[in-house]
Amino acid sequence: MYLVLQQCLNGLVLASDYTLFALGLSVIWGVLKVLNLAHAELFTAGGLVTVMLGANTGLPLPVIVVIAAVAGGLLSLLVDTVAFWPLRLKKLNTEELELTSLITSLGASTILLSLVDRITKHAAQPLPPRLFTVMTWRFGPLILTNAQVLVTLTALVLTLVTWWVVRRTQYGRALRGLAFSPDMARVVGVRTEPLFRWTLFACGALAAIAGLLLTILLATMDAYSGANLMLKGIAIIVLAGSGSILGLLLGAFILGFGETVGSLFLPSVIESSLPFLVILVVLLIRPHGLFGESESVRT
Amino acid sequence: MDGEWSATLLLCGIYSLVAIATQLGIICGAFSLAPIGWMSVGAYAAALAATKWQVGGATGLAIGVLVAVVFGPLVMLPVRRISGLYFALVSLAFVLVIQSVVSHMDYTGRALGIFGVPLLTNLWHVGIALVLVCGVAAFMTGGWRGRALRAAGQDPKVAYSMGVNVANLQLVVGAISAVIGVVAGFLYAHYVGYVDPTQYGFAMVVQVITMVIIGGRGHWMGAIIGAFLITSLPLILRPLAEWRDVVNGALLIVVAVLLPAGIFGVFGLFRRRAGPVDPAEAKAGH
Amino acid sequence: MSDLIVRDLSVHYGGIRAVRGVNLEARKGQVVAIVGPNGAGKSSTARAIMGLEPATGAVSISGREVLGHPTSMRASLGVGFVPEGRGVFGPLSVRENLLLGGYCIDSKLHTKRLDVICELFPVLGRRFEQHASSLSGGEQQMLAVGRALMSDPAVLICDEPSMGLAPAVSKTLFATLRTIADRGAAVLLGDQNAGRVFAVADEVCVMRLGSIIARGTPRSLGSPDELASHYFGTDSGSSAGLADT
């Protein structure tokens, strides 16, 4: 029983990080109609910046967080300039754009993955101990670390901030208008290209922070930390449907708990293929996701 | 050197098979990655036939093909409800579920896979298979059948209205590409001598997509060009071998942005055949 | 000086010229209407003025030349645009649609503008938090006009506002457009419904095959039925939407 509770706790922490990862992926998908496979490498970049700056400089963690976020944002803009912006100029229809951008983002992801793999010398990089000292609290048999608290709270705050920006600000309304119809957004005066860029920057920064948090949680990172999350991220946004942060939370919790609590009950084959089963079942039964904003967004 | 080249040639042939199988799906409007899953079915059929079932290779192949004929169309079925990116995701999930299943079953050797598959595949086998598959591909994509197939790929609604039975066509393609995938996997297992789950996962999916896109979306010859190019690239450009993934990724972006019809499109050899279809023509042929 | 001046505007789609050398002017307080059958080029003209179609010629808004500038810049110069069909942001609420309409103005003015819109279209006020996609066709059209008015535009361009609306609803809508012009905006209106247009327009341009073939006050052009039979060779009974329905 304590084991179940402990795994619930671990699942909660994992789900928080998944949410943060899926958040940017989902926004980019909704607004740019791009399933950005390179999002995984933006995540990894966050971890990489953390271990590298941690090992080679004396910068404190908060400064590193800012640098990692900016680096992730800039990298996201770079990916856009190379892989997505040329496609926006071509004015493809949505289905063509989705497939072509999937391919260009795959290219960008392949390049970045291979570069990170070289930088990390094909090995896992430990988090320099000076950056973060793990403290453990015990509540009876339950164990809670400050890393877990940090990850969960940061993810919670950033998710709420994103929700607030998207739902409650003029910027968010413009973003949702843009996702619905770029031409109509232009008609009301939205300058679409800068908005695309800011959104890409913000989503890159979110991914990098998620990567940084996972590095702190696991005290290590490698070139594949992001790539390993990609399919889970896709499963989460497929489950959520576009434009629903509540759906993202639910998806992240299903996958996070599936991995932790599920490992106690589910046969290992189900547990390890959970993300793919989610993709299969959701797309086959409810193609617009559980909370999708109706038919308008998906073909 | 000789051995290395013939080995590369053989791999080129096997990859060409999977790439053609994928290409056939794309032509009829189903961006399906399922052929990689079928490759793994073929490979495991080969391995199980040789080690567990104690039957000849031919029987193993026959069983694999049977499974493909029955379930290939089934995997293609969702394309009726969901299209484009979403169908690609479904087919990817199919590939990864297979990978996950074989890596968790004792029967299939879990993550270690199965060793001791006899090394039987030679260049002749691959060559013959490739010629046969090219024949099938040319048959499926040539003449009125090809026009109907492309019409289905470009605009299913228009194709239906012109009398093309899009759904049936896609199911047939599902079966054919599944069988091709099984054959490719079977040959591969008998070439490397073992199977393990990592062979047919996301990395292979990326590899095959790269081949199809760079070679040229929309024609089976594009698949062959892509397979040969990507497989032999490290051998041709030795200094670049280390940077292989970077080169592949850059090629993917450049081709997708600048040459949507791939290298095959540049040749323009069969431009008329690969070009947009006139639905009226497809109907007339029907 | 006129708030909207269009000189020698042409729009090409591939090899087809949808609009051929159109000249238009609209001044504060004026409703200028373009009438003509389907495919005459009304929509293309309106969209080209807004920068949604590539065009040649000259378009000036409040004295600024805008051709070659992006759509968003034209919006910020004070053009409100009501797109053809149900041109609202479906997944956003009515309030959010209106607030987005005020994208170019200071957000402090939003509350005041919202009040003005709700006074013009009381029904929108009652549906404030509903998704725009859940409104009826007429309500969506009012929302689209309301959204365009949020920025208090100098020029309001309406593309086929009466399409698919019940006669009573389109009558109200057109009356509102008249009110908007009387309050000091220049209104450019492209519509098939000549009868309704004649009731509110100061100037009517008759468009056919991409060119303006006649223009004048509604009085000088005669009745809508005469117009239809004269310019489009149809009698009033069978004219495709040109006659008052």
**CATH architectural arrangement of chain C:** 3-Layer(aba) Sandwich
Name of the level-1 CATH class of chain C: Alpha Beta
- Name the helix and strand elements of chain C from N-terminus to C-terminus, one letter apiece: EEEHEEHEHHHHEHEHEEHH
Question: Structural class, from secondary structure content of chain A?
Answer: mainly alpha
- Our count of domains of chain C comes out at 1
**Largest beta sheet of chain C, briefly?**
6 strands, mixed
Question: Considering DSSP H and I runs of 4 or more, what fraction of the residues of chain A is helical?
Answer: over 70%
User: What proportion of the residues of chain C form beta strands (DSSP E)?
Assistant: 25-35%
Low-pLDDT ranges of chain A: 294-299
Shape of chain A: globular
SS elements, strand count of chain C? 10
Which strand order do you get reading across the main beta sheet of chain C?
Answer: 6-7-8-3-9-10
The number of helices of chain A is 13
Q: Count the DSSP helices of chain C.
A: 10
Query: What is the averaged pLDDT score of chain C?
Result: 88
What would you note in describing this structure?
With 299 residues, chain A is mainly alpha-helical. Chain A has a domain at 17-224. Chain A has 13 helices and four strands. Chain A has helices spanning 2-32, 39-56, 61-90, 94-119, 146-168, 170-180, 182-187, 192-218, 227-240, 245-260, 262-265, 268-272, 274-285, and strands spanning 125-126, 136-139, 142-145, 220-221. In chain A, the strands form two sheets. Chain A has a two-stranded antiparallel ribbon. A two-stranded antiparallel sheet of chain A has the order 2-3. Chain B has a domain at 2-201. Helices cover 73% and strands 1% of the residues of chain B. Chain B has helices at residues 2-27, 34-51, 57-76, 85-102, 123-141, 143-154, 156-161, 166-192, 202-215, 220-236, 244-258, 262-267, 271-274, 279-285, and strands at residues 114-115, 194-195. A two-stranded antiparallel sheet of chain B has the order 1-2. The longest helix of chain B is centred in the middle third of the chain and has 27 residues, at 166-192. Chain B starts with a helix and ends with a helix. With 245 residues, chain C is an alpha/beta fold. Chain C has a single domain, classed as Rossmann fold, CATH 3.40.50. Chain C contains ten helices and ten strands. In chain C, the strands form two sheets. Chain C has a six-stranded mixed β-sheet with strand order 6-7-8-3-9-10, sandwiched between helices. In chain C, helix 3 (94-101) packs parallel to helix 6 (137-149) and helix 7 packs parallel to helix 8 (194-200). Chain C is globular, with a radius of gyration of 17 Å. The termini of chain C are far apart. Mean pLDDT of chain C is 88; it is low at 235-245. The chains are: A mainly alpha (299), B mainly alpha (286), C alpha/beta (245). The interface between A and B is large, with 39 and 39 residues.
